[in-house]
């Protein structure tokens, strides 16, 4: 199993393609540039099974319908953001003047619990990591040694908490309780910026000091 990071959309949000040896794949946070993403999938002969969303901010959902409609696959999101996909006020697109309001259809599956999830041959764990937004989740692929953290944890930083439903204290607790407890060698695939590791963030992320 391997993964690929693809910055997409107006603010270059990281989309991730998690690929199995049989060319099936999961698409995490298709944030925009639908044609570019579809062309890449088609060129590589990949077979998407599902769209997984770490949360429903506009920069993570811009190409949801392009992927869902092209491949007729389900979309997963946490239940606390069930209504965000179709509401520009909740997903934030309404408040950015250079962004067209984004509306997507409702998710096909609501994530209600933490724990193991299986889609096709993919097995991973869902961790509820709220704070950046109420329904933020991280997807942890234990065997492969990486976690897709959305906008919870970045290299040297953490997610902003001044948007709808944000909570700084809750975000710090999520990071410490759910992410920093992972093996230190775990790769952190963030929603923006470069890949990091749990060890590096424990050692040098000043936002986490003194929690």
TrEMBL record:
Q: Which cofactor does it need?
A: Zn(2+)
Which InterPro entries does UniProt cross-reference here?
MBL_Glyoxalase_II (IPR051453), Metallo-B-lactamas (IPR001279), RibonucZ/Hydroxyglut_hydro (IPR036866)
Q: Does the keyword Transit peptide apply?
A: no
- The organism's place on the tree of life at top rank: Bacteria
UniProt GO molecular function: hydrolase activity; metal ion binding
SMART domains assigned to the protein according to its UniProt record, in alphabetical order: Lactamase_B (SM00849)
Keywords from the UniProt entry: Hydrolase, Metal-binding, Zinc
Q: Give a single Pfam family match.
A: Lactamase_B
Residue ranges occupied by any Metallo-beta-lactamase domain in the UniProt entry:
12-192
- Determine if Zinc is one of this entry's keywords: yes
Recorded hits in PANTHER family, A to Z, give: HYDROXYACYLGLUTATHIONE HYDROLASE GLOC (PTHR46233)
What name does this protein carry?
A: MBL fold metallo-hydrolase
């Amino acid at each position: 199993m391997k993964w690929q990071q693809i910055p997409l959309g107006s603010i270059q949000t990281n989309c991730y393609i998690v690929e199995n040896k049989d060319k099936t794949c999961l698409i995490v946070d298709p944030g925009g540039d639908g044609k570019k993403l579809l062309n890449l999938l088609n060129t590589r002969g990949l077979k998407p099974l599902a769209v997984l969303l770490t949360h429903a901010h506009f920069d993570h959902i811009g190409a949801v319908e392009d992927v869902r409609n092209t491949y007729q696959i389900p979309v997963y999101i946490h239940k606390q953001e069930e209504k965000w996909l179709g509401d520009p006020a909740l997903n934030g697109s309404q408040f950015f003047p250079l962004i067209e309001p984004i509306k997507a259809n409702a998710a096909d599956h609501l994530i209600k619990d933490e724990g193991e999830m299986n889609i096709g041959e993919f097995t991973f764990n869902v961790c509820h990591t709220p704070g950046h937004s109420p329904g933020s989740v991280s997807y942890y692929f234990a065997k492969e040694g990486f976690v897709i953290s959305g906008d919870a944890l970045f290299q040297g930083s953490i997610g902003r908490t001044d948007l709808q439903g944000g909570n700084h204290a809750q975000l710090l607790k999520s990071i410490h309780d759910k992410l920093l407890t992972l093996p230190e060698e775990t790769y952190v695939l963030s929603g923006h910026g470069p890949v990091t590791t749990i060890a590096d963030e424990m050692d040098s992320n000043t936002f986490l000091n003194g929690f």
